[in-house]
Amino acid sequence: MGGAEDGAHAAGGHASNGHANGAVEEKVDELRRVMGKADGDPLRIVGVGAGAWGSVFCALLQDAYGHLRDKVQLRIWRRPGRAVDRATAEHLFNVINAREDVLRRLIRRCAYLKYVEGRLGDRTLYADEILRDGFCLNMIDTPLCPLKVVTNLQEAVWDADIVINGLPSTETRVVFGEIGRYWKERVNAPVIISLTKGIEASLDPVPRIITPTQMISKATKVPLDNILYLGGPNIASEIYNKEYANARICGTDKWRKPLAKFLRQPHFIVWDNSDLITHEVMGGLKNVYAIGAGMVAALTNESATSKSVYFALCTSEMIYITHLLEEEPEKLAGPLLADTYVTLLKGRNAWYGHKLAKGELTLEMGDSIKGKGTIQVRHFDCCPNFQLLPQTSRHTKLC
């Protein structure tokens, strides 16, 4: 599927810089045409939320398109004021000094001294400050490219053409509710790509599931046709280190196909699909499965047999649920199933489940774990007439 095109991209990596840059600029120009951008008006792409995957996603775009400043502007928003503790500052200093390219970059930017002072405890570093230099607080061991960081949410999003939601599902509704107030006077709705995994349950007016794209649409009044979901087997640090990966962007034909082409890179293949709701729900449920996988691994001393039985039960349930969500669901294959598999293998939720089973963490400690970020889980209890918030013309009972 897409083999010839993938091969062309792979070959492009060995082509001359002129040829590669020409192909990159062509992709930008094509997306600009689709979005109706005039000459001299740059395409404004904004990341909202700077966790590991949100930061890496923006850094991938910065690496690919950041040199085309007249045509593309990239920035990322995160809340100000989050302090980097002394132990993390010391570790960050060691990471910097272990990478000659990073060390030289910081010296050239006259930024190295503040990391020396942070290590000594002579000054406090902040998460938004180090992100500007290419360091995500949730992923210290993987230096990124420098990013343009904005800490004022209104400044970040008010004129954005494309917004990337990298927030946890627990924060999506609140932050996009605020963004919605800034967009009241907008004539043209932006395009939103949600990376968020998680679902919520609501009992009013009937019991139903609410997905992040639906939260965003309700909060901002942006039509669901302009909101897409991107998910796949994506371990953020590995993708930024250019390990081969794929993902799937889901939504309407108008946006998903040009965006899939724009986001695709030689090591990051993006497929597209129209089945938004199934992929979003599965993206949330696989986080629940991952906690169980971590617990199974810990309690069975990493038994391959036990883990495979658990995986079989998870996939059976996924098949059942997809048939409830869609009359003719797509087969569970490619990035959707792989996303579940990689999260069970190495995701932070699997790590969390493993620690819970070993007694090294407790539920009372909460879901925000230092160095890991937020453990993204939403759960609901089965009840009669549990229905999905309608994405299509029909309601779907889940129980």
From TrEMBL:
Residues 1-22 are annotated as: Disordered. It comes from the Eukaryota. The keyword NAD applies. Residues 147-249 form the Glycerol-3-phosphate dehydrogenase NAD-dependent N-terminal domain. It holds the Pfam family NAD_Gly3P_dh_N. Residues 9-22 have a biased composition (Low complexity). NAD(+) binds at A236, R348. GO terms for molecular function: glycerol-3-phosphate dehydrogenase (NAD+) activity; NAD binding. GO terms for cellular component: cytosol. Its EC number is 1.1.1.8. The keyword Kinase does not apply. Residues 275-371 form the Glycerol-3-phosphate dehydrogenase NAD-dependent C-terminal domain. This is Glycerol-3-phosphate dehydrogenase [NAD(+)]. It comes from Aegilops tauschii subsp. strangulata.
